[in-house]
Amino acid sequence: MNNSAPRAALASVKPFRVMSVMQRAHELELQGKKIVHLEVGEPDFSTAQPIIDAGKAALDAGLTQYTAATGLEALRTKISERYLKQHGLTIAPERILITPGASGGLLLLAHLLVGQGDGILITDPAYPCVRNFIRLRDAMPQLVPVSRAQAYQPDVAALAQQRTPETRGVWLASPSNPTGTILERQRLQEVSDWTQREGLHLLVDEIYHGLHFVDELPSVLEVNDSAFVVNSFSKYFGMTGWRLGWIVVPEVAIETATTLAQNMYISASALAQYAALAAFEPATEEILNARKEEFRRRRDYMVKALSDIGFILPEEIAGAFYVYADCSAFSDDSEEFCRRMLEDHGVAMTPGTDFGETGAKRMLRISFTTSMAQLETAISRLRAALLPA
Ligand SMILES: Cc1ncc(COP(=O)(O)O)c(C=O)c1O
Domains plus CATH for the chain? Predict the structure, then answer.
């Protein structure tokens, strides 16, 4: 046996298909083809100028050392103030830990909450890293199929159906990647009540908060003060490459979470944290909200255009920047469909099989993280490819 080989359990951790789509799109571009990128999961805008300026000023001031493992006090305070302003919640800054992206937060919480052999209920479809992080703990992602009819979010009956004696927790996302759908207050409350009755922990990934197009988007903390929250500066705040996020943990978990942070990464990037202090300034918020309105405009355009072509979409895309589209009018194999649309028509999209299993072969994720002009090009190419002349 080769003693340098990765352990066998890692074979279940699969690469992202979106990465091979991006790689192939890049190869085609090198051959001179013009590709429209609808596969990318990050805002196309660069970081807002006040945040960049704050980052530069921090560098000039020599603020390049580690910070506390839990992050800058000033940043945790600003996040705490945001919970008060947006959700009417008093969250002590001590419960907020700054992490290297939501990814760092999810990994930390996987270590905090998940042990070998545990079952964690997650939706099918969901952001793929989540099930991989659970597998890395030698634990079991327990997939809860969710359909268009339930806005791709679980209710108690769906969760209860997949629950086993091994189940320890429920990990959800609202708004969700890839569906853009949210857990409305009542369902969130019911799910939360059920987890409390059943003695399960509840974690909600709220990374797309801020990039929502509905008036009301509750944080899970409004209905359950002992829930775990993951959030990030990547999406609404447009800071993907800075690698900065945060988690909110209940009082009882602060100490262990802090110890894990110290051991796992010492601190999140100091530069990113100093820069992010400017993310809450009114001038920045104005820029971010204008961008959100641009995402809304793109969403409205894509929903109408894709429906007209014959894709079946969620009833409402309430947040994030994705359209999770059923392509069964054209294909029952979304991987082959995405390959064909990329190779023959220059439109890059992500097959649903990146995100789940049930029915994933007829689904694809279309991101509207590119300009209106590019979206219009994509739509005219899809129309030409899929509709009779
Ligand atoms: C639902 C969800 N959670 C977490 C992440 C990771 O984000 P970050 O850049 O903050 O690590 C993503 C990134 O696309 C995501 O969609």
Answer: 8-46+283-386 (3.90.1150.10), 53-280 (3.40.640.10)
